[in-house]
Amino acid sequence: MSRIKTILVPTDFSDGALHAARYAMAFAKELGASVTLLHAWVPPVYPRPPGAAFAPTQSVVDETEHAVSADLDRHRQLLADPAVPLSTKKMLGTDAGTIVQVAVEGGFDLIIMGTHGRTGWRHLLLGSIAEEVVRTSEVPVLTVREPKKA
């Protein structure tokens, strides 16, 4: 087994993703590894009948990208630890496919990501990005379940 030096942490800015990122930071501190927070996003598409779609204007794309950058900066500040190098990355693309692509192309040693732990009908209806990453990634994946709310 090779030494873990770089950890990719996909985030959708949810509480579960933040929990997984905190776990990744603690893990990285123990290993002397670095962490990269990744948010994969696609510009909003507005449905128009019948079966057509309206692409957003450049200003909408720019506003969305600015909001993503602000959220990544906020999470970087929440997670900051001088002992762990922490960077951020944003990518256009579909969530699971982009996560796997970034992990492989970036030479990451591990992906740590949150999972909602849905089962049954909720899982079938809502799907699971974490499950797709686990199934398709060449890079090892550690999933961190979102803590149950009291």
Chain-averaged pLDDT: 86
Helix content: 40-55%
Name of the level-1 CATH class: Alpha Beta
Segments where pLDDT lies below 50 for 5+ residues?
Answer: 121-127
The portion of residues forming beta strands comes to 15-25%
Broad structural category: alpha/beta
The CATH topology annotation reads as: Rossmann fold
Q: How many domains is the backbone divided into?
A: 1
Give the name of the CATH superfamily.
HUPs
Give the strand tally. Answer: 7
Distance between the termini: 38 Å
Largest sheet: 5 strands, parallel
Question: Which strand order does the major sheet show?
Answer: 5-2-1-6-7
Overall spatial form: globular
Please give the radius of gyration in angstroms. Answer: 16 Å
SSE series = EHEEEHEHEHHE
Tally the helices: what do you get? 5
What CATH architecture do you see? 3-Layer(aba) Sandwich
Fold and architecture overview:
- The protein has 150 residues and is α/β, with parallel strands linked by helices.
- It has one domain: 3-Layer(aba) Sandwich (Rossmann fold), CATH 3.40.50.
- 43% of the residues lie in helices and 25% in strands.
- The protein has five helices and seven strands.
- Strands 5-2-1-6-7 form a five-stranded parallel β-sheet, sandwiched between helices.
- A hairpin with a 3-residue loop joins β3 and β4.
- α3 packs parallel to α5.
- The longest helix is centred in the middle third of the chain and has 22 residues.
- It is globular and about 55 Å long.
- About 5% of the residues have low confidence.
